[in-house]
Amino acid sequence: MPKIQFELTSTPITSHAGLAFIGQALDDPVLANDINGLCSLPRNKNYISTLDTIKAMIGLLSVGKPQFDAIAEYRADPVFATALGIKKTPSPETLRQRLEQCPESLDKVFRAFNTRLLAAHPHLLTEDLHGQTWAVIHCDVSPMDNSNSHKEGVDWTYKQFEGYAPMLGYIGPYGLMINNELRNGSAHSNTPGTDAWFKQTMDMAERMTSHKRLVVTDSGNDSGVNVRLFMRQKDTDFVVKCNLRNQDPQEWLDLAVKQNGGADGEYVDIGARAWYGQKQVQIPGHSDTPDDPKTCRIVFRVTKRFARTDGQYMFPAMITVDAYWTSLDWTPEQIHEFYKQRGTSEQYHSELKTDMDVERLPSGKFRVNQHVLDMSMIAFNLLRLAGQGMLKTGLVPGRKARSKRLRLRTVIQNLMYMAGRLVQHARKTIIRIFEGHGWAEPVMALNRLPDG
Asked: Comparing C-alpha atoms, which of 369, 294, 202, 136 is closest to residue 194?
């Protein structure tokens, strides 16, 4: 083959044409007014607004580059600024310093924008379960590894590394992030203030959709305070995995067998049987409000394994209990099967920390890293919405066209990093992409889709 030579050109060519979709979504006058009103700075000829700084950071997060130094790659790139709608791209130093100057109250601006963003796509927030439409909200802690750093708030986590332990919440069947909270690495899942975070999350969900909410948490959030909070919340149901602590599993087995009339139980495999049951239990802890509920329903599944799957008997038999606080009237079997699907939320954590590379947060200051996590939430949702929009076109190539959702890695690789050529002519700004690219058709169709 002939030797290929490289030459420089003054024609603006970009390897991240998809950032234009991010810029369009961030072109929100309410967001601009909120940020400019909260983070105003003296103007001069070298002034870079806080709004432009935040847009630049969200742009970096959208291409999987959360570190401040990464902005240096785009300072001389006119497409980056044009696509995101910013006047001047900040330097790494300016990016860091400007975010450090932002007040803590900026988190309210980010959450307000995120609420408006998700409320504009109500069809992605709900799913039909047992004859009713629900907005399911999965909440969980997912530690972030920040080992060998001296960042504020980094501590030993339950995953046996140094880092943070943020609380993350996702709404709907496609995994849109509704809320987050950065926490010290040593913080427990139910650390003080968790009930206030749940209340904030449910209030945000109420502004997003008129359908009933269904909050799902693991045993780390098993507390009387949370159960009472969920029971008081209007149009909200819940499933909270029970922390059985030191309770005797044999007692649960005896109760389950009794409620099933002494039957042999459901066949699990050659060496195990399972029984389902339910009971009304007094909610633990003390409440100062006389009208607070005193009891709540617990449903459970008890599994007795008396032999391994190869038929070898076990002495003694192993008894495991899965129990759930719930306000639903579903059967114990239905609730257990529903909770098993919770594992999908672990994939959402992976997409945030691996696909977007948001794990080693860039700042040494805790407050700044909370802002970065908030901007990551916005970038996460914009990428998710773009992926679902392309699937909606029916033009996504290959086996991914049959997917329920596109992984963020797929969106970043095929949309964010799509090559294009910037053309400015007759007061129009156009990004041209190669018509032979396999993802060109869904991208063009996505550009034609109406908002929402």
From this structure: 202
